[in-house]
């Protein structure tokens, strides 16, 4: 009866060892499982000594010698646990000189020799029958031979290894790992001393079995606790790494989407969400076809129009990702090369500007030469005429042509300015707009259109800009509004101020401009007119910028267009009355 009870108890460490191997296949787990397995063998050997009613003495002898591998090989396995501990904890690097594989194989060889001696009479030469006692049933006690001293040395080496193990384990930084390794060393020492006390004291032999099983269970629970703490820490680290990788993915300027093997979207970065005006929650777990069905996204074309009306150039592609040859994902990538495309366009525009500039300079000079001759002849005719009125008109018109040619030369060589061009000239916005209104009044009446001026200024409307430049800007904008509107349409020139700036708005109720074209207004050589060149608006934008102004174009198809031009107010002397400035403006 005692044999079966003790054998059942001895199988507990065996069961725990096998359970650990199902839990994990790491080196640490395997070595600890062997440790528990050897404890199980040791206790099975003790249980066999109580089996005289079950087995013959020959079988008992053979089984006892076989299970004696438990206490014999606990010595090298404790040393190997030290090797694993030092290898897994970088702070124990100094102990690598003590715990190394060469030492393990030497100790393993010694234990093998002890185990072999155990099968000879020099190790065990018989058994002594022990009668029933007060606390212990009858059992057998082994009689040891002359070379059993090797087993004693093996036991002393266990204690030595355990002391070294304790010293090294006490240096481990992780509290849970340190406690577990200290418990292993204390448990090993306790088991050995418990076995010695049971063999050479009044305590019953099976007493060590109960204590060893309890220690084995406690070590198992400690190991599970340590692994749980390490697992929680690993999960926390993985969570932090995942958060970091997600942040890196989100700040990536490329457009990224991760697709699983079922073509479902599992992750989008912020760049693609901003591009398509979608949210991550909206598209996660949706099929890729849902993403591709968004009207702006066409992977077959590089050019796309966003919902905000911005044109982007994107190269789309796919990359396959495999994890441990088990899971497969697809990375949907969009590389934005809009800036590169814009730089290429700027180079192209620069080359066009150079060619057109050279052509403009050539034409301007060719026209100015005969105009000079014509003007000189008219002046001679004017001196001989009694009524020079007609000649004055012709001279004024020729001067206007010369001014236009000057602007053409400005286009040819924008950096070159005439001598008087850099001089300060203060104009009155309302007066100049009234002159332009008067100029186009007949044109608008003929086309059945209405042009009006709305003056919301509470003080003078003076700005610092050349009169010819201001007229060129406003005439170009008014002309475009007239061309964009249908009969009975209205064009309003609205002027107001915020105290520091004069704001001029040209508002029409024409057909408007599409979003795709609105962003390109002001680009050289870009026009929607059949016979347009795209030069007029480009020059106007340039002149506004050169005079510290700002221009903004708002438009909606079918509703009309508003062009807002803002100039800083002119800095004038306070004591100089506005009327004198107006007079000076008229005489320039």
From TrEMBL:
Known catalytic reactions: ATP + protein L-histidine = ADP + protein N-phospho-L-histidine
EC top class named in words: transferase
UniProt cross-references to SUPFAM superfamilies, sorted A to Z: ATPase domain of HSP90 chaperone/DNA topoisomerase II/histidine kinase, Homodimeric domain of signal transducing histidine kinase, PYP-like sensor domain (PAS domain)
UniProt keyword Calcium present: no
Domain Histidine kinase residue range list: 362-571
Record-annotated membrane-spanning stretches: 6-24, 31-50, 62-83, 104-124, 144-167, 179-200, 206-224
UniProt EC number: 2.7.13.3
UniProt keywords, alphabetically: ATP-binding, Kinase, Membrane, Nucleotide-binding, Phosphoprotein, Transferase, Transmembrane, Transmembrane helix, Two-component regulatory system
Residue ranges constituting the PAS domain according to the UniProt record: 241-303
Molecular-function annotations in GO: ATP binding
Superkingdom of source: Bacteria
PANTHER family: PEROXIDE STRESS-ACTIVATED HISTIDINE KINASE MAK3, SENSOR HISTIDINE KINASE
Stated name of the protein: histidine kinase
Organism of provenance: Jeotgalibacillus terrae
């Amino acid at each position: 009866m005692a044999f079966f009870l003790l054998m059942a108890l001895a199988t507990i460490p065996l069961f725990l060892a096998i359970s650990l191997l199902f839990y994990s296949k790491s080196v640490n787990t395997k070595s600890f499982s062997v440790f528990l397995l050897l404890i199980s063998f040791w206790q099975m050997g003790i249980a066999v000594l109580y089996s005289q009613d079950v087995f013959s003495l020959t079988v008992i002898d053979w089984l006892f010698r076989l299970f004696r591998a438990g206490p014999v090989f606990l010595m090298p396995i404790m040393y190997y646990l030290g090797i694993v501990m030092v290898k897994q904890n970088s702070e124990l690097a100094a102990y690598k000189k003590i715990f190394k594989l060469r030492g393990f194989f030497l100790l393993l060889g010694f234990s093998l020799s002890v185990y072999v001696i155990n099968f000879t009479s020099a190790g065990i030469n018989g058994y002594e029958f022990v009668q029933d006692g007060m606390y212990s049933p009858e059992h057998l006690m082994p009689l040891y031979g002359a070379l059993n001293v090797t087993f004693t040395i093996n036991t002393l080496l266990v204690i030595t290894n355990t002391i070294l193990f304790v010293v090294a384990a006490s240096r481990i930084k992780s509290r849970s790992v340190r406690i577990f390794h200290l418990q292993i060393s204390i448990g090993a020492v306790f088991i050995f001393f418990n076995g010695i006390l049971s063999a050479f004291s009044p305590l019953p032999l099976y007493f060590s079995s109960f204590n060893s099983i309890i220690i084995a269970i406690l070590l198992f629970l400690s190991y599970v606790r340590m692994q749980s703490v390490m697992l929680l820490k690993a999960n926390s680290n993985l969570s932090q790494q995942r958060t970091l990788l997600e942040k890196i993915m989100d700040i990536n300027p490329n457009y990224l989407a991760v697709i699983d093997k079922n073509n479902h979207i599992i992750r989008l970065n912020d760049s693609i969400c901003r591009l398509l005006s979608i949210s991550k929650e909206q598209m996660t777990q949706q099929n890729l076809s849902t993403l591709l069905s968004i009207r702006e996204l066409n992977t077959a074309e590089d050019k796309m129009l966003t919902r905000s009306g911005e044109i982007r150039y994107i190269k789309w592609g796919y990359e396959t990702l495999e994890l441990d040859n088990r899971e497969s994902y697809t990375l949907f990538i969009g590389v934005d090369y809009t800036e590169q495309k814009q730089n290429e366009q700027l180079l192209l525009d620069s080359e066009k500007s150079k060619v057109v500039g050279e052509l403009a300079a050539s034409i301007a000079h060719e026209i100015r030469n005969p105009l000079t001759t014509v003007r000189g002849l008219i002046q001679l005719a004017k001196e001989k005429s009694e009524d020079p009125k007609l000649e004055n008109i012709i001279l004024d018109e020729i001067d206007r042509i010369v001014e236009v040619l000057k602007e053409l030369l400005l286009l040819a060589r924008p950096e070159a300015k005439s001598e008087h061009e850099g001089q300060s000239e203060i104009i009155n916005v309302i007066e100049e707009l009234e002159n332009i209104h008067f100029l186009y009044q007949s044109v608008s009446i003929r086309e059945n259109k209405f042009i009006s001026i709305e003056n919301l200024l509470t003080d003078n409307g003076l700005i610092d800009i050349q009169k010819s430049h201001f007229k060129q800007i406003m005439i170009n904008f008014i002309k475009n509004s007239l061309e964009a509107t249908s009969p009975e349409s209205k064009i309003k020139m609205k002027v107001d101020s915020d105290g520091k700036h004069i704001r001029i708005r040209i508002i029409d109720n024409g057909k408007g401009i599409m979003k795709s074209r609105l962003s390109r207004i002001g680009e050289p050589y870009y026009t929607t007119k059949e016979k347009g060149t795209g030069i007029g608006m480009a020059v106007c934008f340039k002149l506004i910028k050169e005079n510290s102004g700002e221009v903004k174009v708002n438009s909606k198809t079918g509703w009309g267009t508003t062009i807002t031009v803002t100039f800083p107010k002119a800095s004038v002397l306070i004591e100089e009355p506005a009327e004198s400035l107006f007079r000076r403006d008229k005489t320039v």
